[in-house]
Specification:
The chain is of the alpha/beta class. It has two domains: about 10-40 and about 80-115 and about 275-345, 3-Layer(bba) Sandwich (FAD/NAD(P)-binding domain), CATH 3.50.50; about 125-275 and about 365-435, FAD/NAD(P)-binding domain (3-Layer(bba) Sandwich), CATH 3.50.50. Helix content is about 35%, strand content about 25%. The chain has twelve helices and 23 strands. Strand 21 (about 360-365) and strand 22 (about 370-375) form a beta hairpin. The longest helix has 20 residues, at about 135-155. It binds flavin-adenine dinucleotide (FAD). The site of flavin-adenine dinucleotide has 33 residues, from helix 1, strand 2, strand 4, helix 6 and helix 9.
Length: about 450
């Protein structure tokens, strides 16, 4: 830059999920330099994590490297690291990565750090019932699910076999329903014939939720249809049932009839989200309010109150009761980018973010899904075809789309599950990682 040239406007984006990545892309032709900071080197397509956990897709297919996704965007650079502190006065973000700490200054900041799993204050449940938020979670669950069938094959105690072949999924939202449906398909369709001592069809898949319905946000019609399809698959659905304790060998639930224990080696937590630590720190630093889940209450234009240069988008923002779904994140990320572009072009800003609801989808098994698009409701094959098209459209990267289709073909038309590998490290590293994270600055 020569001395007469104006420095370019610096936009820092925290988080390369749907919100951050689409915000960055929307700034492609803007006169800005974008620095995208993410805790991992990849963008994660969370809606397909359950397919990694159940051996349908490989982790790479749903997690393309951010660098590759943005390689043609000359005004964007990617940095690995976890933002730990935002200083809104100095306009600086402090970041840590393994063995390194650094800071990045900004003129505009888009915070899109997503959400984390909530165990409703019982974080100790996580050791026994991993959530479904990251590749680590999905691979650990993959190891636990396939590992349970392997251990059941060599076990001789009938009670232990029953425990190993009982899978409990907590939370009957889209993730829980999809997960339960896929484990049922594994047990009833893919694994039979591969074991000598056990019949995988004897596996029990139990879906538990404190609410009285499955897919409660989809409306009565689709909720009832989803329940019917789950029953058809052999999933036992226990509604109005609250999980009160989880340990290594089972789960305790409470209903109107009292407390009961379910013996189960494999528990999966698909209930509850909490805002990330950064949301709380940003709220403290700016005086912004948070909602009960810790999400940041933003202005209608997605800026943080009192800070027109800071935007919070996606799962970590609380605005108009919008749900934590990919489309809210994508559209709010693009809105924030649009506001920055307008500001730099000297145009009026502050327009409220308007969410365009494109609908909701959840698969239950192969060829069977429920979808709600505006006034229209689809169930069964039609819903599933819609699911297929939408996921292909939004899966990032051409290569990933091709190989995902190939794997879907293997799993849905054939009876294979091509991604069943889980290493010992993936299954047992939870403790080591916890110890490592405790030692981080
Ligand atoms: C298992 C599962 C299934 C889902 N299924 C669906 C579905 O079918 N349909 C749907 O619409 N939505 C679904 N969702 C919700 C959807 O994935 C989210 O709403 C969406 O990902 C939110 O986007 P985001 O950008 O706000 O956050 P995220 O996509 O979570 O991205 C946040 C990013 O920020 C990074 N990050 C976090 N903290 C920091 C930090 N301090 N510093 C640097 N980086 C940080 C993370 O590594 C991550 O890359 C699902 C979610 C899950 C977990």
């Amino acid at each position: 830059m020569d001395e007469h040239e104006q420095p370019r406007h610096r936009v820092v984006v925290i988080g390369a999920g749907f919100g951050g990545l689409f915000a960055t892309k929307a700034l492609k032709n803007a006169p800005v330099d974008v620095t995208l900071i993410n805790g991992t080197a990849y963008h994660l397509f969370q809606p397909l994590l359950y397919q990694v956990a159940t051996g349908i897709l490989s982790e790479g297919e749903i997690a393309p490297p951010i660098r590759e996704v943005l390689k043609r965007q000359k005004n964007a650079k990617t940095l690995l690291g976890t933002a730990t502190h935002i200083d809104p006065v100095a306009k600086r973000v402090d970041v840590v990565a393994p063995g390194v700490a650094y800071s990045v200054e900004y003129d505009s900041l888009i915070v899109a750090a997503g959400a984390s799993q909530s165990y409703f204050g019982k974080n100790e449940f996580a050791d026994f019932a991993p959530g479904m938020k990251s590749i680590d979670d999905a691979l650990e669950l993959r190891g636990r699910i396939f590992g349970a069938f392997e251990l059941a094959e060599i076990e001789t105690d009938p009670a232990a076999i029953d425990r190993l072949l009982t899978f409990v999924v907590v939370g009957a939202g889209p993730t829980g329903v999809e997960m339960a449906g896929q484990i049922a398909e594994l047990a009833h369709r893919h694994l039979p014939g591969q074991y000598h001592n056990i019949d995988p069809r004897q596996a029990r898949i139990i879906l538990v939720d404190a609410l009285p319905t499955v897919l409660s946000t989809f409306g009565d019609h689709l909720s009832t249809e989803a329940l019917r399809q789950l029953h058809k698959l052999g999933v036992e659905v226990e509604l109005s049932t609250k999980v009160v304790d989880v340990d290594e060998s089972g789960i305790e639930v409470e209903t109107d009839n009292g407390r009961r224990r379910i013996e189960s080696s494999t528990k999966i937590w698909a209930a509850g989200v909490a805002a990330p630590a950064l949301s709380v720190q940003l709220a403290q630093a700016t005086g912004a309010e948070t909602d009960r889940a810790g999400r940041l209450k933003v202005n209608p234009d997605t800026t943080v109150p009192g800070h027109p240069e800071i935007y919070a988008v996606g799962d970590m923002m609380a605005l108009d009761q919008l749900p934590g779904v990919a489309q809210v994140a994508i559209q709010s990320g693009r809105h924030a980018a649009g506001q920055i572009k307008k500001r730099l072009a000297g145009q009026p800003t502050g327009q409220p973010f308007k969410y365009f609801d494109k609908g909701s989808l959840a698969t239950i098994s192969r060829f069977s899904a429920v979808a709600s698009v505006g006034r229209f409701h689809f169930a069964g094959l039609l819903g599933w075809l819609l699911w297929l098209v939408v996921h292909l459209l939004y899966l990032v990267g051409f290569k990933n789309r091709v190989t995902a289709v190939l794997h879907w073909f293997v799993s849905f038309i054939g009876r294979g599950r091509s991604e069943r590998v889980a290493t010992f490290q993936q299954v047992f590293a939870r403790r080591a990682l916890q110890e490592y994270q405790e030692k981080l600055p």
